[in-house]
Amino acid sequence: MPKKVDHEARRQEIADALWRIAVARGLDGVSLRDVAAEADISLGRLQHYFRTKDEMLLFAMRSVSARADERIRERIEAVAGAVAEGVLAVPPPRIVLREVLAGMLPLDERSTVGALVGAAYFARAVHDERLQAEAREGIPGLAAFLGDLLSRVHEEGGLRAEYADADPKDEAMRLISLVDGLSTYILLGVHSGETALGLLDGQLERMWTDGR
Amino acid sequence: MPKKVDHEARRQEIADALWRIAVARGLDGVSLRDVAAEADISLGRLQHYFRTKDEMLLFAMRSVSARADERIRERIEAVAGAVAEGVLAVPPPRIVLREVLAGMLPLDERSTVGALVGAAYFARAVHDERLQAEAREGIPGLAAFLGDLLSRVHEEGGLRAEYADADPKDEAMRLISLVDGLSTYILLGVHSGETALGLLDGQLERMWTDGR
């Protein structure tokens, strides 16, 4: 299906152009025409792929999520490899949890691009039902996934009593919110990525019975 | 000084117009001309008060902060009144802390307006050094204030060991970040204000030695 592949590749190229603008100056007031210019195609051609700015932003945001998933998967695989080789002795669920949360922080260029696109998305989504729907679908799924990991840590006796008493999904939602806020303050230059990661780790450590 | 009062009053009127647009449809692509139209004044007159959109946004954001301070002060005074009358027996610092944090959540119309202006501000500030400076000044001050409250709770023996071990400013930064993320997910419709407040209270309760 070369045609479909081309179509997807072109959509990704356009999303990449949108990303570059998002990183360089934000998306406030950016038009389809601006993105077409950045992608070096005509406006008509761009509109063949995306009719509206929100449609384009939705695709760009999904693309950000997919790349974040990939990045987090790489982090987990690196850790899993170390466990298999006997380098690490700590049980996996809490590590997976930590890597997913750390992977959501803008700590390097790739994740910062994602966070900047996310910031632009957020500013529009608060006024757009369709864009909000994406968050309403994605976040509870993420909370359920992280909640399951917390339950597994608990089954292994690794979760402190006061954290084990809470609904795992609620606890996960608190962690997601914490990471979201920590990310905001990285982007605003209030603290460094390293500081934010330390604050996240500080919270995680006190959740575990062995404190690490 | 009637002239200065008028000047400030007019700036506030313009900021109010900006707020109304921020609430109704967001500030993406909104021009000085749009705000002038909403404020029912000429563009030239508006530019007498604000030369750029960022200057206007900075004023609107400071105005949001001032109103949030006022709202939080009201909440604290209401609680302090109840303590003085003997209705409440719980020691004040933890209550002040809780009211400040709860007051940052978009739980009613006034605080939602503030959060929506904040969202628009955030989306621009990530690309604007001058707007970022505002966050870099304000947030550490807030963290220091909340950190002092935590230290006072600790002095009264109210803070659990694992929270007392952390730097109070770090702990405060975690709470600010948590509230920031919880607010984001209220605005995106992921959870209700009530749910978010419950998640905040759940975190606070486990920080106190008596668990409430």
Write the layout of secondary structure elements.
The structure is a homodimer of 212-residue chains.
Chain A: H1 2-25, H2 32-39, H3 43-49, H4 53-84, H5 92-103, H6 109-125, H7 129-155, H8 161-164, H9 168-187, H10 193-205
Over all CA atoms, what is the radius of gyration of chain A? 19 Å
The helix tally of chain A amounts to: 10
Low-confidence stretches of chain A: none
Task: State the CATH superfamily name of the largest domain in chain A.
Answer: Tetracycline Repressor, domain 2
Strand content of chain A: under 5%
Q: What share of residues of chain A is helical?
A: over 70%
**Could you say what the CATH topology of the largest domain in chain A is called?**
Tetracycline Repressor, domain 2
CATH class of the largest domain in chain A: Mainly Alpha
CATH architecture of the largest domain in chain A: Orthogonal Bundle
First-to-last CA distance of chain A: 50 Å
Specify the structural class of chain A.
mainly alpha
Largest interface: A-B, 45 and 45 residues
Shape of chain A: elongated
Largest sheet of chain A: none
Count the E strands of chain A: 0
Supply the number of structural domains of chain A: 2
The sequence of SSEs of chain A as H and E is: HHHHHHHHHH
Mean pLDDT of chain A: 88
List the quaternary state of the chains. homodimer
Domain HTH tetR-type (chains A, B): 8-68
DNA-binding region (chains A, B): 31-50
Protein name (chains A, B): TetR family transcriptional regulator
Organism (chains A, B): Streptomyces finlayi
